[in-house]
Fold this sequence. Notes:
By secondary structure, the chain is an alpha+beta fold. It has four helices and eight strands.
Amino acid sequence: xxxxxxxxVEDQYSVGDQVTIAAISGEVIEINPRRTVVRDGDGAxxxxxxxxxxxxxxxxxxxxxxxxxxxxxxREAQRATALIxxxxxxxxxxxxxxxxxxxxxxxxxxxxxxxxxxGEVRPAARWSIEGELRRQLRRRFADERIEVRxxxxxx
Length: 155
């Protein structure tokens, strides 16, 4: 029971979070001082005694994090910054917890600049919001005749 109290007091995970506990991955359905109940991807319920939990991985915070990398020619960096800011400012806010912003940018390759956008969204909407933001950025960059690339593996 002591482990369960620490789990609850330290808010290590909550009902609804996506976790891996005792080699079981899934959604937390219930937590009490004695046990944690997790529903796996197949729908099976696993009742895990809190006393047997030595490592718990909570993936829900990572699922909220939106990350998009995009690359433009260096000569267009200033215009690209303004364009990115205008696109993210127009995003609907229902599922956006923290508006995406340019976290950093760096010069890469032969005079290109990579912008890295980060924000926070509701986990269930992450993929649709990232996809829509990429579409909007691609469309606006095309309208302005600015070459843009979304590097594979960077998002």
